[in-house]
User: Which sequence fits this backbone?
């Protein structure tokens, strides 16, 4: 019985997988206006900039660098979901449009996420080892967030 069911289910799944390759979500490849960007508006050391760019910008900016496997359905939908969702909450490419109060609040949230080890998402650091932050890197970024918050 099970064998019979599998004989039907497996081909159906495989055909579904093949067909799904013709579908892909809209990718995050927007215009980057440097003047609107967090790292243009706020002064950051090269060390801080490079941590934030490599660990956060794929999901919190208008442009994502996609790995090759990200083109395969349905992985692409799953990855795009994180990007769209991340950007909706926080978009460093649109920093210029955030009010001082909003900037302060978002930086505070960044500190919280880093302290709790919630960001970058675990599923991301599995495949992007460069985004796995050491305690020193987290502290550096958190101190920077605090210093920027003091401005607002
Ligand atoms: C793989 C995608 C991804 C990466 C990389 C990533 N984030 Fe996120 N981020 C998300 C998603 C999705 C959410 C919204 C859902 C949630 O809170 O889990 C989010 C939410 C947040 C929030 C909450 C914003 C709000 O208004 O609620 C902050 C703050 C944040 N991220 C900061 C960071 C920082 C700082 C980094 C880099 C150290 C980072 N994220 C890297 C996907 C990502």
Assistant:
């Amino acid at each position: 019985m099970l064998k019979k069911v599998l004989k039907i289910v497996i081909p159906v799944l495989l055909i579904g997988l093949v067909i799904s390759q013709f579908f892909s979500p809209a990718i995050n490849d927007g215009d980057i206006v440097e003047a609107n960007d967090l790292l243009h508006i706020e002064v950051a050391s090269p060390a801080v900039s490079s941590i934030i760019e490599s660990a956060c910008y794929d999901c919190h900016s208008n442009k994502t660098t996609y790995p090759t496997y990200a083109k395969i359905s349905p992985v692409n939908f799953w990855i795009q979901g994180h990007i769209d969702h991340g950007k909706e909450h926080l978009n460093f490419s649109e920093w210029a449009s955030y009010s001082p109060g909003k900037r302060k609040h978002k930086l505070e949230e960044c500190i919280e996420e880093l302290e709790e080890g919630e960001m970058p998402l675990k599923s991301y650091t599995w495949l992007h080892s460069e985004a796995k932050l050491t305690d020193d890197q987290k502290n550096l970024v958190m101190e920077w967030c605090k210093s920027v918050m003091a401005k607002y």
Notes: The CA atoms of residues 104 and 150 lie 8 Å apart. The chain has a mean pLDDT of 96. The radius of gyration is 19 Å. The first helix runs from residue 2 to 20.
